[in-house]
Design a protein that fits this description.
By secondary structure, the chain is an alpha/beta fold. It folds into 3 domains: 82 residues, Winged helix-like DNA-binding domain superfamily/Winged helix DNA-binding domain (Arc Repressor Mutant, subunit A, Orthogonal Bundle), CATH 1.10.10.10; 92 residues, 3-Layer(aba) Sandwich (D-Maltodextrin-Binding Protein, domain 2), CATH 3.40.190.10; 104 residues, D-Maltodextrin-Binding Protein, domain 2, CATH 3.40.190.10. It contains 9 helices and 14 strands. The strands form 5 sheets. Strands 4-3-5-14-6 form a 5-stranded mixed sheet, with helices on one face. A 3-stranded antiparallel sheet has the order 12-7-13. A two-stranded antiparallel ribbon has the order 1-2. The radius of gyration is 25 Å and the shape is elongated.
Length: 297
């Protein structure tokens, strides 16, 4: 039987170093042996994985896919052996890549990171905060935090918390411009909206006695890319925003922001999930991180 794991290790080393010579030094093999092993993989698969030039190596799209899967398989082999050697109790270790929305990351993950790393000192945390939707598998994220409906059925998800959208403003802004008493009165206010593709320039409200929420158009002189920025602009007295309540609970307690139009809440619930490319043998570092978030949510 071919040593597929060994071939994968060679291909990963070549891909990460972008050099046959560097991969040979890492694995203590000759450059010609490394080249022959890569060629053997390509011949077996019937496709080109690397584009070779005199100075560099570049992965083809097929090579990118093979690299991602090979890295995952090699990690699972190592973790399986560690699990068996540890008598079935796996110690979380290794690099953990986490992707989260800016607001959630600032509000929860960053304050919790020191405690998590103290509990699991062999884990190295690579945290990316962005409000752009990423391809979890393509970007090689171990865990991504998502809010709202989940569209990729190939991913696993674990519920972390629920939140509701809330309309907010600072006392200073309301002191200058007045407090809207109904959704219709938002027409006279500067409403801060989102600029990402899935957003709309409408906010949902449920009028008293009505069974369903209605969408009301809002207007303003600023569009931004994240709930965290909406919060900061509202704190600065720029205008009125609408974001998940979890962003601003501490601000309500401090009195620096106030909720508006509470009698017209739409009833929407935003569910926050930890999303991951899961299977039956989930890496210990991923399971530990998700369990930790659930514990603290």
């Amino acid at each position: 039987m071919d040593n597929r794991a060994g071939e994968m290790e060679v291909f990963v080393a070549v891909s990460e170093t972008r050099s046959f010579s560097a991969a040979a030094r890492r694995l203590k093999l000759s450059p010609s042996a490394i080249s022959k092993l890569v060629t053997r993989i390509e011949d077996r698969l019937g496709t080109r994985l690397l584009v070779r030039s005199t100075r560099t190596l570049q992965l083809t799209p097929e090579g990118e896919v093979y690299l991602q899967r090979a890295q995952r398989i090699l990690t699972e082999i190592v973790e399986t052996e560690q699990l068996v050697a540890a008598g079935g109790r796996m110690t979380p270790r290794g690099l953990l890549r986490v992707n989260a929305a800016v607001g959630f990351g600032e509000r929860y993950i960053m304050p919790l990171a020191p405690e998590f790393l103290a509990r699991y000192p062999e884990v190295r945390l690579d945290l990316t905060l962005t409000d752009s939707m990423i391809d979890v598998v393509g970007e090689r994220a171990d865990v991504a935090i998502r809010t709202g409906p989940l569209r990729d059925s190939s991913l696993k998800a674990r519920k972390l918390m629920e939140s509701r959208p809330v309309v907010i403003a600072s006392p200073a802004y309301l002191g200058r411009h007045g407090t809207p008493q109904t959704p219709d009165e938002l027409d006279g206010h500067n409403c801060i909206r989102f600029n990402f593709r899935r957003s709309v320039d409408e906010w949902a409200f449920r009028m008293p006695g009505q069974p369903a929420a209605e969408l009301r158009s809002v207007f303003g002189n600023m569009q931004v890319s994240s709930g965290s920025i909406v919060r900061q602009l509202c704190l600065a007295g720029i205008g009125i925003g609408r974001i998940g309540r979890f962003h601003v609970e501490p601000d309500f307690k401090a009195g620096t922001l106030v909720p508006l139009l509470e009698d017209y809440q739409s009833g929407e619930i935003e569910t926050v999930y930890a999303v991951y490319a899961g299977h039956e043998h989930l890496a210990a570092r991923i399971r530990a991180f998700i369990d930790f978030l659930v514990e603290h949510m």
